[in-house]
Amino acid sequence: MDQLLRVMNFCVSRDGVAAGEAQSLEEPFGLPHPERLFGWAGATASWPMREDGGGSRGLDDYFTRDFARNIGAEIMGRNKFGPQRGPWEDLDWTGWWGDEPPFRTPVFVMTHHGRPSFSLSDTTFHFVDGDPATVLKQAREAARGQDVRLGGGVTTIREFLDADLVDTLHVAVAPLELGSGLRLWESPDELLDRFHREVVTGASGIAHHLFWRK
Amino acid sequence: MDQLLRVMNFCVSRDGVAAGEAQSLEEPFGLPHPERLFGWAGATASWPMREDGGGSRGLDDYFTRDFARNIGAEIMGRNKFGPQRGPWEDLDWTGWWGDEPPFRTPVFVMTHHGRPSFSLSDTTFHFVDGDPATVLKQAREAARGQDVRLGGGVTTIREFLDADLVDTLHVAVAPLELGSGLRLWESPDELLDRFHREVVTGASGIAHHLFWRK
To answer: Does pTM surpass 0.95?
Structure first.
């Protein structure tokens, strides 16, 4: 447990939906009005993409503030990196985040289709094909003793949960039902066989589910 | 607001008491069973003095985990540093924390009685005589762009509040009444003219009061 694998600030609806089924360039989350799930994070002072000096410093800010603390690498699925599927046809695509991605560490993008690593500002993207345990080993080495963030999307998180590789999860449950889409869980109780859980709800109405290994 | 002055993990009873009136070497907080106020912090995985690998990773851990994040200096009152009063008679006293103090930054101890600076591991203690604004200026320079933690005790925090120098406060209110002692406040509502507040209570029963400037 020296180097934790951590799910952080992962946003779902009350019925467990984290993304729609039809991701596109215009709708990265495949959801209408995704701010209904993610708006709480953007309202905080420590949101990584914030450029002004404003924002709240209450409970929700402790979660966004923790985003980079002691994190040395991120693992993400290809669908978090971009909307393309199959072999890379457009190597000009360098992610959703512009010239200054918020990760500032090595990022391991899981894909069966290789492409060369590249760097943007302090972030370097590597494209790796392997099972979760193999990719985690690579990410831990790159993290140099720090923890590894498991960035999502939902399919990737489920693969790592199925392989029992996740040490802690912070899942932010928004007070709305989406009905259809990609689900993290049918119920958060599914994780209680392996994890402790604490749920805390602040003024924003977001229920923060905090899980850590038993 | 680039370099915040932050009160963090400051523990009081429901009636606002943070310390007893009779501090001694045996009772640094001048309270019987001070663990009733502070025990929640020691139970977390990220408590700075923890040496084993255990501890909880729920809500309370986000607060202890935040202890060192982006903190470049601490300011404390003399009574947090030690039980002596008046001119220093025992320069062998180097604080309560042994050879590895948890601060790992410059620490400015406010006292009218000078003594030479000294270092223990990554922490350097300076002894400074000045009003809160002057000491804060020194601490901000030492913090090199990072925030400054206002470590207490209660008298010191009140001095900085009176001078309107505090940017954020996290006060952990334990569910017990102590009746007598040094009080941070008569009521937390006293701060609402200048601060936003959110209160969040987790499984431990501690009510975390989070204040940030309006």
So the answer is: no
